[in-house]
Fold this sequence. Notes:
Chain A is mainly β.
Amino acid sequence: DIQMTQSPSSLSASVGDTVTITCRASQSISIYLNWYQQKPGKAPKLLIYGASSLQSGVPSRFSGSGSGTDFSLTISSLQPEDFATYYCQQSYSTPNTFGQGTKLEIK
Amino acid sequence: QITLKESGPTLVKPTQTLTLTCTFSGFSLTTSGVGVGWIRQPPGKALEWLALIYWDDDKRSSPSLRKRLTITKDTSKNLVVLTMTNMDPVDTATYYCAHVTAFYGAGPALDFWGPGTLVTVSS
């Protein structure tokens, strides 16, 4: 299985800040990397697919980059509704493993 | 409008078999590039990918659970069924089904999710 490692595990930030979450794969996965946002008690929501393609309806303050083994999700100008847990997922090979999550909290 | 919903027992006993049904609308599982996946999340923990079935009946499952998992589809009824045998308390989790789109050049992604169903394994 391909292991996905996110950092940091948790992060505190303020409204208006820009934050970056990183995700590292245990082997090269090209651009087969997705990002999801999950709020407490809710199902995850797809934000980014193919490392950098923004899912329809997702605000443009969310952006993704990377290829190979190293990827990042950047959220610009944080809004109150962005405080949630974020997961990366590789779709290069099954099982399509997830990272352990990054909890973004309000400072 | 794509919607999915999971259904099944909320409580199962250890060693029993869990059968979960994902009923969906707004898409057909006969459409090229479309699939339905299952994911679970133990309370307070991370997401775990379980299995996936595509429009062409291509089936994938987690190697660590493969012996216990079966995934099937009924395209006429718009549903996907996941069975997991020999349930254990560590299998207590919220189980989600999700619509899968195989984006060209970008791989599959879980782009629409059901609300999830909490399954507790306890005697």
